[in-house]
Amino acid sequence: MKINLNTNGENPSMGNFCSPNVCTWCDGCGDYGIWTAVKQALVELNINPWEVLLCFDVGCHGNGSDKIVAYTFHGLHGRVLPFASGAALANMNVPVIAFGGDGASFSEGIGHLVHSIRSDYPITFVLHNNANYGLTTGQASALTWQDQRMNSSPNGIPEHTLPSMDFVFSLEPTFVARGFSGNIPQMKEIFKQAISHRGFSYVDILQACPTYNKFATHEYLLEKCYDISGEHSSSDFEVARKIATEDPTKRITTGVLYQNEDSPNFYERLKARQGIKTTAVEEVERKDVSGLLKEFV
Ligand code: SF4
Questions:
Q1: What is the pTM of this model?
Q2: Which residue has a Cα nearest atom 6 of ligand 1?
């Protein structure tokens, strides 16, 4: 487990996470569903706003960083994973959830994604996968479908679409799930399992962006998404990889696709931390360095 819950006996409610700031997402944006499911998952896991860190990358979803009450951080484009991982390793008592878009995560920040998965940092990562850069008004991302006309590429992009799920599975993840922004009950259950996973949880949420994504629309995702929960053993890596990479024009499997519950996470494999009960944050001490500074003036 990477969570240590409900230490003070107070049970949170949805209202505890309500911010007075008004959401500015477009009507019909999938961000609303994801934002709701995250709050529901935290409530059902008995995690209070002061017991969780939510880290946001730059993107439309990132504008939600002040629309929810919790410890929140809104970082640089593509850099949410290093910050979130560092925060988690410094204080393993606080669950950390990082949110990033498909643009930042599979272009500017793809190196961080690679090493977060292979390192198995003890955080949850929620990919807001709307297959474009919505915040910059519909630019093509690495996950935009090839030949789709976008504002930045009116003739369609010449590159092929990055096969994100195959790529993620090539990095030997310990947790992979996929959901759809129109299915809040399923997302809630996925988030609960992801937050409870001991290592890096990769959660791909296919998100409707009615303003700029005219191909993988809410209606399209509603038709193609297939909840595989209850008929799939998430412990079988090869089967999970196979169903995760099926042709999305035929069927998109959703649910927890893969979980390895036995593999120790990055922190648990750190020899320097073994047997130590305190967190790194608790070990920080004030030191008088004035004498040291005088040597250099
Ligand atoms: Fe949502 Fe797309 Fe609007 Fe951004 S541009 S707020 S992702 S609908």
A1: 0.94
A2: 25
Q: 201 in a domain, yes or no?
A: yes
Handedness of CA 267, 273, 274, 276 (dihedral sign): negative
Q: How many CA atoms lie within 13 A of 136 on its CB side?
A: 15
Atom of ligand 1 lying closest to residue 213 CA: 2
Atom index in ligand 1 nearest the CA of residue 135 equals 4
Q: Is the CB of 205 inside a 6 Å radius of any atom of ligand 1? A: no
CATH number at residue 116: 3.40.50.970
Any atom of ligand 1 within 6 Å of the Cβ of 35 = no
**Helix, strand, coil share (%) of the chain residues, nearest 5:** 35, 15, 50
Please report whether residue 15 resides in a domain: no
In a domain, 268, yes or no: yes
| Tens digit of pLDDT at every position of the chain (297 positions) | 455 555 566 789 999 999 999 999 999 999 999 999 999 999 999 999 999 999 999 999 999 999 999 999 999 999 999 999 999 999 999 999 999 999 999 999 999 999 999 999 999 999 999 999 999 999 999 999 999 999 999 999 899 999 999 999 999 999 999 999 999 999 999 999 999 999 999 999 999 999 999 999 999 999 999 999 989 999 999 999 999 999 999 999 999 999 999 999 999 999 999 999 999 999 999 999 999 999 987
Chain position carrying tokens 């949110």: 99
CA distance 50 to 71: 6
Number of structural domains, the chain?
Answer: 1
CA of 284 from ligand 1 middle (Å) equals: 41
Closest CA to 191 of 206, 209, 178, 207: 178
Domain that holds residue 45: 24-294
Q: Is the CB of 179 under 6 A from ligand 1?
A: no
Q: Is residue 160 part of a domain?
A: yes
Q: Whose CA is nearest to atom 3 of ligand 1?
A: 26
